[in-house]
Amino acid sequence: MEAPGRLDELGAAGRAAWDAVVADTLKRGVEAHVPQGLTTDPAVATEIRAPDWPSFPARIAAELGTGEALVQMDLPEGRLRHQEEYLEWRVVREGDAICRIELTTELREYWQVLAAHEPDRSRALIAGFAGIDEVAPEHVYGALGDPSAATAEARAAAFARTMLPVEDAAPVSPYNNGTDAVCCLIHRDNTLAALVNLVLSAARPLLVEDALTGRTRYPSGSEAIRELHASATDGRNSDPLVVERVTRLATERRAIGIDDPVGIVIHSVEHHALAQPDGTDIPASWFEFGRGVTAEDAPDGLPRHQRLTFALPPDADFALSDLVVRRTGERLRHGGQLAALVQLTVYLRTGLPGSAP
């Protein structure tokens, strides 16, 4: 398997370790859900499907109310509890003014492999996220000491203890809790296993009888989650949509696969939904996509960005918090307002109707 984003930063040992992580996750998912039509053969699954969804945590907003949810999601503990749509962010402020918003979809499982096998590269990347020259080893590997003198297994364990949460406790390191940087996803539902289980648990045929017409039809996402006991949470933007799309493919007896490389991609951002103080549109160039490849550089023509940074140009005479969200007329005060404008996707492969055995 390629690295998420088609990144080329792992050596041979790291690539083998990543292959093993993905293979084990798929194996567990197949054993748990017995998906129908699953294939890893691109000659059978020749088409690409890209279900996309808004990355704002809709379920949390429904529970707390949008205003309170926006406040809670920007807190360090709010990221761990509430940023559940496979995208997480931090807001960089100077006083009350927002100067930058950083968003990521990078999988923790990949970062654990990267930290295990490429310690120097990992620290350099994290320093770049934080905008500094160097990150001390203890901020990434805890009490391990010199990471170059340790085994890959020891580095992976030390990274997990230092940079990833234990249950609902916040990560120890400020370089992944949002204080100084966001390195990779930390919400308990934003994992490779959760993504794989979401897709595989929906890969089963299902038709339902419409309560009004009595006719047989494809199920909605909510209906499919309930009837298939899918590994999904209703009320989110992502889960019902992905489950509905995958269940329909399975019902059409199409071969289904998760594209290589596996991961969540930042598909687009509605930059025209934000206005400058004078009412003009926000230039798309103010959004910096990263940690992936552009459509022009990808062999399949599909962009695979995993990070997005929103900041003003140096010559701007106002702050991000002076921008206006056109839909609501409110000024930009929270990272969740930007997340509502970001579309995510997961690339799936599928064959023609009847291609599944």
Query: How many separate helices?
Result: 12
List the helices and strands in order: HEEHHHEEHHHHHEEHHEEEEEEEHEE
Broad shape: globular
Mean pLDDT figure: 95
Fraction of residues in helix: 25-40%
Main sheet specs:
4 strands, antiparallel
Strand content: 15-25%
Q: Rg to the nearest angstrom?
A: 21 Å
Strand order of the largest sheet: 3-4-11-10
Class per helix and strand makeup: alpha+beta
The count of β-strands is 15
Ends apart, CA distance between termini = 24 Å
- Total domains, how many? 1
Low-confidence stretches: none
Outline the structure in words:
By secondary structure, this protein is α+β, with helices and mostly antiparallel strands. It has one domain. Helix content is 34%, strand content 15%. It is built from twelve helices and 15 strands. The chain has helices spanning 12-33, 58-64, 66-74, 76-82, 108-117, 119-130, 138-141, 152-163, 192-202, 221-228, 238-251, 335-339; strands at 47-49, 52-54, 88-94, 97-104, 208-209, 216-217, 256-258, 265-269, 274-275, 287-290, 307-311, 324-325, 330-331, 342-345, 348-350. The strands form five sheets. Strands 3-4-11-10 form a four-stranded antiparallel β-sheet. Strands 1-15-7 form a three-stranded antiparallel β-sheet, with helices on one face. A hairpin with a 2-residue loop joins strand 3 (88-94) and strand 4.
